[in-house]
Design goal:
This protein has 373 residues and is of the alpha/beta class. It contains nine helices and 29 strands.
């Protein structure tokens, strides 16, 4: 049955609240957890249930890092003659319109030519190790036109703010929807995973385009709910959306909790990513590491506490890293103090520099920056 499903990943999320990390890349290709990219989660979740045809709706610019990471899809077994991975870029370079419906307008032929009967629509900025098998089974058993996946939140949740919420009746049927502005106990947050028949999706998109509508694919489907029968599936595992600097930092730091890390990165066969042949991390005499993740290829002489260190980072003697996320190929000089910081790739910090950000709003250091006297 899984062969009749294709994947459609939406990678055109707005980035106004995370600009420093998306200056040269979409949210989908932001590094995460020391060795992954955000888009690894939807790609892995889709291919683990046998999806062999995946289209990625991408923005019109700043996609080099995404192309470089995905390549031919070989890391997710998508480099194949039957199916494969397809980047769906708009044919018109429009600096204002980045809506994924506009992108699909230029690529409806891809949907038309795809052999699969059903489409799993998936937002690229959702972090979660989600088994799609029971969701697909629920959709098929329900016999409904469309299935939406949601998660019940607790009152302290900040990783789903701004998402669509559903109100359902006692029969689990749709009543109304809204936007989650503040954390609410038992609020049903839409995880932006939708299953729908391909022909029905194409009819909805075509109708919307003909009427000049602009917006999100899921919004188009919601606008047609009065004409559709709907099934709602509750996912109970760990999830979160990368929508801002704060949410990226919180999701990253949550990986330091062992149970969260095991569920998110290692359960259900783990998360697949681009392979890089780097040696194990090297910890020199005198280095100190506590409650941190340190990726391959690092050379550590200083101290690390409550932090995530990505591949090929060099931390010199006497340097101190705390409550920070350091992305790939950074060099931290001797005696440097870094605290509450998100450091993008290829940053160099000279000797004895001090960079300390607020506890609840970390400083973001842009890619290829140089800090030294």
């Amino acid at each position: 049955m899984k062969n009749s499903y294709m994947g459609l990943i939406l990678a055109t999320q707005p980035n106004k609240n995370i600009r420093a990390l998306t200056k040269n890349r979409p949210i989908a290709s932001i590094p995460f957890g020391g060795r992954y990219r955000i888009i690894d989660f939807p790609l892995t979740n889709l291919t683990k249930v046998g999806v062999k045809n995946v289209g990625i709706v991408i923005p019109h610019k700043n996609i080099r890092s995404l192309r470089d990471h995905i390549r031919s899809g070989q890391f997710w077994d998508l480099n194949r003659k039957d199916g494969g991975i397809f980047l769906l870029q708009p044919t018109i370079d429009n600096a204002v319109t980045k809506y994924n419906v506009e992108n699909l307008k230029s690529n409806l032929e891809y949907l038309h030519k795809s052999k699969e009967k059903n489409v799993i629509i998936y937002s690229s900025n959702l972090v979660g190790n989600i088994d799609l098998n029971p969701i697909i089974e629920s959709h098929e058993e329900s016999g409904k036109d469309v299935t939406f996946v949601y998660k019940k939140l607790d009152s302290n949740d900040r990783l789903h703010l701004g998402t669509k919420t559903f109100t359902l009746n006692s029969e689990n049927e749709y009543q109304s929807s809204g936007v989650l502005v503040n954390s609410e106990e038992n609020a049903k947050s839409f995880l932006e995973i939708t299953i729908i028949e391909k022909s029905l999706l194409m009819d909805i998109l075509s109708g919307g385009v003909q009427n000049g509508y602009k917006g999100d694919v899921n919004k188009f489907i919601e606008l047609n709910l009065g004409k559709l029968t709907s099934n709602f599936y509750e996912h109970t595992g760990y999830t979160g959306f990368v929508t801002s600097t704060e949410s990226f930092y919180e999701l990253s730091m949550n990986l330091l909790d062992r149970d969260t890390r095991l569920e998110l990165l290692l359960s259900n066969g783990g998360i697949s990513t681009k392979i890089q042949d780097t040696p194990p991390a090297l910890f020199r005499k005198g280095s100190k590491v506590s409650n941190s993740l340190v990726a391959n290829g690092c050379k550590i002489k200083g101290s690390i506490k409550n932090s995530i260190i990505s591949r090929r980072v060099i931390i010199e003697e006497g340097a101190s890293i705390e409550n920070s996320v350091i992305l790939q190929s950074c060099t931290i000089g001797k005696g440097v103090e870094i605290k509450n910081v998100i450091m993008d790739k290829n940053v160099t910090v000279g000797k004895y520099e001090q960079i300390i950000g607020p506890k609840d709003l970390p400083i973001v250091i842009e890619k290829k920056s140089v800090y030294e006297d």
